[in-house]
């Protein structure tokens, strides 16, 4: 069996630099086309935010030993920021904080639950990320107290799922989680 030749690190770094340069070129061209054709509609900013988001994901994914839970956390936060930005650029109708962020929180918590069940023995690697996702999941409740959320049902469901998921993980791995917190925060 013939295997493909392994790409060397220097060569892959060069390829990434070229692709980033191409992405920057595309972003500039999109801005110019937007300014010349439809300056009243900020579609180039939306496209460029998608390009930026894609590079954040690619660069993070290329790193060796990427923790899946860390990737889930990064995706949740990055996508939340991207949807708020898109909503803002389109006149801020509130769909990002009313619908998009709660749905992403639900998906992140379901993913963390699956990770906990599938890799029960390795859950310790995910414990801190689970805590951060739970804290991030309280954002809809904070926004509701500030009357920034119109659709409260989905936000309550998202926060409730997060709390239930965290409690379930605590029941499954309480001792291991306590040791991880003490070790991570040097308590």
* Structural class assignment: mainly alpha
* Overall mean pLDDT: 81
What are the secondary-structure elements, in order, as H or E? HHHHHHH
Q: What is the straight-line distance between the termini?
A: 53 Å
Features:
2 domains, 187 residues, mainly alpha
Architecture overview:
With 187 residues, this protein is mainly α. It folds into two domains: 1-65; 67-187. It has seven helices and no strands. It is flat. 20% of the residues are buried. The model has no long low-confidence stretch (mean pLDDT 81).
Care to give the gist of this entry?
The protein is an all-alpha fold and 187 residues long. It has helices spanning 9-37, 43-62, 68-89, 95-118, 127-137, 139-145, 152-185.
Task: Outline the secondary-structure elements.
Blueprint lengths: L8 H29 L5 H20 L5 H22 L5 H24 L8 H11 L1 H7 L6 H34 L2
């Amino acid at each position: 069996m013939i295997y493909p030749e392994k790409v060397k690190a220097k060569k892959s770094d060069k390829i990434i630099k070229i692709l980033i340069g191409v992405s920057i070129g595309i972003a500039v061209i999109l801005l110019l086309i937007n300014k010349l054709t439809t300056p009243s509609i900020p579609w180039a900013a939306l496209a460029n935010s998608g390009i930026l988001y894609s590079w954040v994901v690619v660069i993070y994914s290329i790193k060796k030993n990427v923790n899946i839970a860390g990737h889930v956390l990064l995706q949740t936060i990055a996508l939340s920021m991207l949807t708020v930005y898109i909503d803002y650029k389109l006149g801020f109708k509130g769909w990002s904080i009313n619908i998009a962020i709660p749905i992403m929180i639900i998906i992140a918590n379901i993913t963390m639950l699956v990770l906990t069940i599938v890799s029960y023995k390795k859950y310790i690697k995910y414990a801190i990320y689970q805590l951060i996702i739970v804290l991030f999941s309280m954002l809809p409740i904070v926004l509701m107290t500030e009357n920034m959320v119109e659709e409260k049902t989905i936000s309550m469901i998202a926060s409730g799922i997060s709390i239930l998921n965290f409690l379930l993980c605590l029941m499954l791995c309480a001792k291991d989680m306590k040791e991880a917190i003490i070790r991570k925060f040097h308590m």
